Automatic annotation (TrEMBL):
One GO term describing the cellular component: outer membrane-bounded periplasmic space
Gene3D superfamilies: SH3 Domains, Zn-dependent exopeptidases
Name the UniProt record assigns to this protein: N-acetylmuramoyl-L-alanine amidase
GO molecular function: N-acetylmuramoyl-L-alanine amidase activity
Residue ranges of every copy of the SH3b domain listed in the record: 37-99
Keywords: Cell wall biogenesis/degradation, Hydrolase, Membrane, Transmembrane, Transmembrane helix
TM spans (from-to): 12-35
One of the GO BP terms on file: peptidoglycan catabolic process
């Protein structure tokens, strides 16, 4: 078969050849990920399979505890999976290959990414107590870690802006929430007054009307119930960690560090667990709207 015959054959069948090449490319694109996929199991029961990588997208299926699926790809901490042989959808990657108590069901909180911001840190001590060896940064981290533990056991993905005594630029903190498409950002601080023993109570602050007000109200309601401090309510504040945040975001001032009665409570062994309980239930209420 000479070149002219080959050329004429291609010319007469150009459309068919083009379609065959295109079909082959599409088939390879669709089939190849199935061979390259890894297998994971879900640690929770009744895990929702979503139509896209968001907890608010349409629910298209359900997985039972310890059921295995094939991972096709990953995006924003979510896995694109294949299940029941041919069906596809999305689940959070952070609830896979993890052990939870038998029968623990997935909740809206378990589908959520929560950023916890322990205020100050490193060279930035924050406010000081009457005894100036008591630095705000120590107590914000202590409470933040208690919240992290509580949320982690519920299945949420918790991202800490800092988990040790390190300095994090103020501008970077809200960006952590923005980059990770967080469902909520919660910054932990402690108040101080110009004079010792002149202030008291905890306050919840917001900036944007993007779900932040609702988040603040939901968590502040639980602070009233669970934390033995005078509550100053939910208020607007122009703080950078809130102002630069595109996600629902609040800042909790958990009592006055330079007031003896407040400090006795916020420095107690039980205080971090009480705040963690309030934040946990407040988030459940907020995310279940």
């Amino acid at each position: 078969m000479n070149k002219e015959i080959i050329f004429n054959f291609i010319k007469r069948n150009l459309v068919q050849i083009g379609l065959s090449i295109a079909f082959g490319a599409v088939a390879i694109f669709l089939i190849l990920p199935l061979f390259n996929s890894k297998t994971v199991y879900v640690g929770l029961d009744q895990v929702a399979i979503r139509s896209s990588n968001s907890r608010t997208s349409k629910k298209i299926g359900t997985l039972n505890q310890y059921q295995t699926v094939s991972v096709l790809s990953k995006s924003n901490h979510w896995y694109h999976i294949r299940y029941d042989d041919t069906k596809m959808g999305w689940i959070p990657d952070w609830i896979t290959n993890r052990s939870f108590p038998k029968g623990q069901k997935e909740t809206p909180l378990a589908e959520s990414i929560i950023v916890i911001d322990a205020g100050h840190g490193g060279v930035d001590s924050g406010a000081l107590g009457i005894d100036q060896s008591h630095e705000e940064k120590k107590y914000t981290l202590r409470v933040s870690k208690a919240i992290q533990s509580k949320l982690d056991h519920s299945g949420a993905k918790v991202i800490m802006t800092r988990d040790n005594d390190s300095f994090i630029e103020l501008a970077e903190r809200p960006q952590i929430a923005n980059r990770n498409h967080a469902d909520a950002f919660i910054s932990i601080h402690f108040d101080s007054s110009g004079e010792n023993n002149a202030g008291t109570g905890d306050t919840t602050y917001y900036y944007h009307d993007n779900g932040s007000i609702e988040l603040g109200k939901a968590i502040n309601k639980q602070l009233i119930n669970d934390v033995p401090l005078y509550n100053r309510g939910v208020k607007f504040a122009n703080y950078q960690v809130l102002r630069d945040n595109k996600r629902p975001a609040i800042l909790i001032e958990g009592g006055y560090i330079n007031t003896n009665s407040d400090f006795k409570k916020l420095s107690s062994a039980s205080y971090p667990k009480k705040v963690a309980k309030a934040v946990h239930q407040g988030l459940i209420n907020f995310l279940s709207r």
